[in-house]
Write a structure and sequence with these properties.
alpha/beta; 10% strand
């Protein structure tokens, strides 16, 4: 049995995602496809445009067989931690044979060469990285510059200027380190670039699509499947935005002590002092984030810190989850009734408990339950902002 895994946010699911999903299944000749999907808050440090259950339903309609949730503390982590968590989750199913991911380069070998250097971390690279970090650069920038200092082809390093390639390299690293039995399947991205801000027809970027949805631009409908476009464009509760959570985030940050701020994920080097000063005078979340971002602390990192504060994510939780395989769990957000056999296979050969109902929590460690409590809290907050309950038992599978 071939089972293809895909790591995704589907924020929102668009035509390019469907192309990738279909191409992944075709190339791998998959019998089933499992998606490891971020929950209600995504890696850029923002709420997803729609709640995780709505996006899981879209994903099943698009052709996936099952969706498992990436724990919230990993979903709002750095690219390296996000990729490691997703790969370990898919490996823990015991059934995934391939990992398909999007790339923006035709030179796939360059991705492997860069991943090999970052995996091995030769002494020259570590020295260069430490030097650039001391210059006050963000970690991604310091890593890029450290690679540029090595005697390797410039074209290899250049692949890291594209966001999908950055994640691809992290997936390759994680597969080599934690799941060498899973085959990597890079798939060339189609359509506009990841960060393009203008719509470009049927295959527009998620960035452009989100902006068009916020602007009420009906042209965005051409970039979305019908089962997504109706909800995204005409349901007033969508898209969900960071601004809707702004007052909650600012309240939470103002209520925290310096010690609590310092304990947040991604906070170091006295950055808690910067947060504490800025939050006292910021009238809104946008002003606050703009006032604390810097060369070292990118906007995405600042957003992740803010969301971590909102969700009460402690600094060491992701380390605990990833440090011991016993702490992993497979929270199923949805599956097709025709794919029930996957659940039986995962229960038989997987290394992590499959969570379908609250009663399944008894099989989990205390760390896993702490993580799931944060996942549940994120769902409760989404429901509060949307003005409705956001909940579904995964056993209410989609019958397609």
């Amino acid at each position: 049995m071939r089972v293809t895994g895909i790591v995704a946010e589907y924020n929102p699911l668009h035509n390019g995602h469907i192309y990738h999903l279909e191409e992944a299944k075709r190339v791998t000749e998959a019998d089933f496809c499992i998606i490891a999907m971020s929950g209600n808050f995504v890696q850029r440090g923002e709420p997803a445009c729609a709640d995780k259950f709505t996006r899981a339903d879209w994903t099943l309609r698009a052709g996936a067989d099952m969706i498992v949730e990436i724990p919230q503390c990993l979903a709002v982590a750095s690219a390296e931690r996000y990729a490691e968590g997703a790969v370990k989750l898919l490996a823990a199913t015991g059934v995934v044979t391939d990992l398909a991911f999007g790339v923006e380069t035709d030179d796939v070998d360059a991705l492997y060469r860069v991943a090999d250097i970052l995996y091995r971390e030769p002494p020259a690279f570590r020295t260069n990285l430490a030097y650039h970090l001391k210059q006050g650069k963000s970690y991604p920038r310091a890593q890029f510059d450290a690679l540029c200092d090595l005697d390797i082809p410039r074209g290899d390093v250049a692949v890291l200027t594209q966001p999908n390639n950055v994640l691809a390299v992290e997936y390759l690293k994680a597969l080599r380190r934690f799941a060498p039995h899973i085959r990597a399947v890079p798939i060339r991205r189609q359509g506009s670039g990841y960060n393009d801000t203008e719509l470009s027809g049927a295959l527009s970027s998620a960035t452009a699509i989100r902006q068009a949805l916020r602007d009420g631009n009906d042209a965005v409908l051409n970039s979305l499947p019908l089962f997504v476009s109706g909800a995204m464009r005409f349901d007033e509760q969508f898209p969900v935005t960071l601004e809707q959570f702004g007052p909650l985030i600012l309240y939470r940050l103002r209520a925290m002590s310096l010690e609590e701020l310092a304990a947040l994920p991604d906070v170091s080097e006295g950055f808690e002092q910067v947060i504490a000063r800025a939050v006292r005078t910021a009238p809104d979340i946008t002003t606050f984030l703009e006032s604390i971002k810097s060369k070292r602390y990118t906007m995405a990192r600042c957003k992740r810190i803010a969301v971590s504060a909102l969700l009460h994510i402690p600094g060491g939780l992701s380390d605990e989850l990833l440090g011991d395989p016993k702490n992993l769990y497979l929270r199923v957000l949805g599956f097709l009734t025709a794919s029930r056999g996957l659940l039986a296979a995962m229960a038989s050969v997987g290394s992590a408990p499959v969570i379908l109902r609250n009663s399944d929590l008894s099989a989990c460690t205390d760390t896993a339950r702490d993580s799931m409590a944060i996942d549940a809290f994120a769902t409760d907050l989404f429901g509060y902002v949307l003005g409705r309950e956001v909940h579904r038992d995964a056993m209410s599978a989609l019958k397609l």
